Amino acid sequence: xxxxxxxxxxxxxxxxxxxxxxxxxxxxxxxxxxxxxxxxxxxxxxxxxxxxxxxxxxxxxxxxxxxxxxxxxxxxxxxxxxxxxxxxxxxxxxxxxxxxxxxxxxxxxxxxxxxxxxxxxxxxxxxxxxxxxxxxxxxxxxxxxxxxxxxxxxxxxxxxxxxxxxxxxxxxxxxxxxxxxxxxxxxxxxxxxxxxxxxxxxxxxxxxxxxxxxxxxxxxxxxxxxxxxxxxxxxxxxxxxxxxxxxxxxxxxxxxxxxxxxxxxxxxxxxxxxxxxxxxxxxxxxxxxxxxxxxxxxxxxxxxxxxxxxxxxxxxxxxxxxxxxxxxxxxxxxxxxxxxxxxxxxxxxxxxxxxxxxxxxxxxxxxxxxxxxxxxxxxxxxxxxxxxxxxxxxxxxxxxxxxxxxxxxxxxxxxxxxxxxxxxxxxxxxxxxxxxxxxxxxxxxxxxxxxxxxxxxxxxxxxxxxxxxxxxxxxxxxxxxxxxxx
Length: 486
Ligand SMILES: [Zn+2]
Known about the structure:
The chain is α/β, with parallel strands linked by helices. It contains 14 helices and 19 strands.
């Protein structure tokens, strides 16, 4: 044990296979938690916990709580603060505000345009400042921690009357002031979604100019790149150049090579990213599936791979069905069917499994679900991402060791986002902890039946509070907004 304990711990985990998040080999040991913190790790001997808070893990794994590097959970942490889809996977922190989409700071008079509608309708957007959002998170106290990015589309929609052009100097100054307010009130950085119509007319110059406001406060930059299809290499170059000009570390969101004609091209993108990462901090996030999901879009419609409807406002009865079947039933082509279903969401089976594995195995990749919590028939990544990496890809496929899998969802992620005292089982760190069974952990959510709890996750603690237990014995919610080291 590292040092004598001055008081009896609140919790003791015994007979644990300790996977500390650093990627180093696991070992058998014990962990003590007092208040919000890990107070001892190693061999505790005769030290006992207050009351009966002693858990014998019988050799099961104990790891830092998982950090979901890429989410759209901005609103759901307030609306459904139990956060069951995530905490049941062992997730204790979510990074929100990705893809240029964030709940603050923007409000709408009418319906939010796509992709902002992925977070909800007009009533969901009630935070004119980041401080107001931070306050709502503190009051609501979700079960898991929130690390927040500010989205470029949110800023553009809040400041520009016409978003289908580049921002002028006055608009950049206004967006910059909003970014400054956000960074001063706890945002960890910002994001763009240059692929999306609300963001696409921003050029590299506009992005770099705004990135400088974030750099002033040592924030990070995450981007859903302009092109993940044919021009993916050019988009990587643009992203790195922009981040370098701004002076921010770069995170390439949900890295993929989409579209049948681009399958296999991670053999080009990953070496390129690795070479660029020698000179500038770059990481990527990735979800463990070969299908993506976003709004249903006419420009993404194709018959070269299956496309499933995840929600449709005029045709909710088509949820969970394939576009080709819907088109056939209606006696129209897929383009007409797409038009009739709008507004809608879809799941696109647009990736090659070999590419997914290559990105997962890259030492630069962190695990991020990109789950869409408001979808009626969500992509299974919302409920299954983390157990799928641990069970399917690490244990069954043997893509990497369990310690590496855990590192990609804890230590690496905490380092990239600079999350203070998170992501490691270490004395003095916040007690964000998950106990799971490596031999049985598995995702059960499928494309057909996506709302399914994973199996093999036994206990999840957040800030020292036992917040999820497969036996039902939880104490409550203790999540909060978490900050970046400055
Ligand atoms: Zn995205």
